[in-house]
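User: quick one, sequence for these tokens?
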């Protein structure tokens, strides 16, 4: 299920204006997203409490949008929120993987600043700090995209391992680059990492790939290729990205920046449990040593190292559970919105 948002306003609470605005918004949502009737499951409108004179669902039906259930509800009053505003949530089942475009007309951009403004959340930090768990929860709760940038470097590392290329060997890695095709797709809201046309989302999680990813990500040519892709994905859409250099290099203008960290033993224990649950047989001390080595390699590399951006909020999750971390991150987001 994919939800497309729309919002518009009317200057006065009158039938003609409501009908015209609803039609204009729906026409634009359908045109911008090249939507087909059979992809639409339901229309949900919400109105600010100052609209009484006409029902937007009726206006939609009259404009020909009668091929899926229509429903309308009253928007709660929001301090400083827009007046005379009609919002739309269009529930769709898209037949392909296209990126949706939300439509905001007639100044209806900031009815709910938390969900209608385009913004990026950068989560950086060392391996096992909890970034990806936090990122997934934020993406779900704010209904924004999640981009796991580590997965992209993991795909690069996996390719090198498969070809027998030493991920530390800059010359060999550069030779491999023209044939390296990493893509990110979204299926049911979850990121799938595609390497040379193959979905490698599972194999890149194997422990052997972690160190290869760390080594290969040190090469400027690899980073330039991946960073370009990351910026392209993040462009014009609200999203949360996790990685090592998001706040410092990939999106230095991100509105929200966090540096998530934790003691290396705590992080090693988290990975240990994760890998054990997946049936991988690992030794804690070896895992800890690997994490420390990866931290060192990620932070000491010359080009775009793991670094806490100057304006990032640092959260040490060693003694925090995930709910406490989410509460802290959300409080910081709300205070800045
Ligand atoms: O977050 P992760 O463990 O999946 O990342 C795998 C490796 O990729 C990590 O050791 C460093 C590298 N990486 C990076 O250099 N820059 C990023 N933005 C994300 C990951």
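Assistant:
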């Amino acid at each position: 299920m994919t939800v497309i948002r729309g919002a518009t306003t009317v200057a006065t609470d009158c039938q003609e204006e409501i009908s015209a605005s609803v039609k204009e918004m729906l026409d634009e949502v359908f045109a911008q997203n090249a939507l087909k009737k059979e992809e639409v499951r339901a229309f949900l409108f919400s109105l600010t409490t100052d609209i009484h004179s006409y029902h937007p669902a009726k206006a939609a039906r009259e404009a020909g949008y009668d091929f899926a259930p229509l429903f309308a509800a009253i928007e709660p009053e929001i301090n400083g929120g827009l007046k005379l505003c009609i919002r739309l949530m269009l529930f769709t089942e898209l037949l392909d993987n296209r990126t949706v475009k939300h439509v905001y007309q007639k100044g209806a951009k900031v009815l709910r600043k938390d969900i209608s403004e385009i913004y990026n959340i950068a989560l950086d930090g060392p391996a096992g700090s909890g970034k990806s768990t936090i990122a997934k929860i934020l993406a779900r709760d704010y209904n924004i995209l999640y981009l796991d940038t580590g997965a992209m470097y993991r795909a690069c590392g996996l390719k090198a391992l498969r070809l027998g290329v030493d991920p530390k060997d800059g010359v060999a890695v550069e030779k491999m680059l023209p044939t390296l095709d990493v893509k990110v797709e979204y299926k049911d809201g979850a990121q799938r990492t595609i390497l040379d046309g193959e979905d490698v989302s599972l194999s890149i999680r194997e422990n052997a790939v972690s160190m290869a990813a760390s080594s290969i990500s040190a090469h400027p040519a690899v980073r330039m290729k991946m960073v370009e892709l990351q910026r392209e994905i993040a462009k014009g859409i609200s999203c949360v990205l996790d990685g090592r250099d998001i706040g410092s290099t990939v999106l230095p203008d991100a509105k929200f920046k966090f540096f998530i960290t934790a003691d290396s033993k705590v992080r090693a224990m988290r990975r240990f449990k994760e890998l054990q649950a997946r049936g991988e047989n690992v030794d804690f001390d070896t895992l800890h040593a690997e994490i420390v080595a990866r931290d060192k390699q990620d932070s000491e590399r010359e080009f775009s190292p793991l670094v806490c951006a100057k304006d990032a909020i640092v959260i040490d999750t060693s003694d925090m559970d995930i709910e406490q971390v989410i509460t802290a991150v959300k409080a910081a987001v709300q205070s800045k919105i």
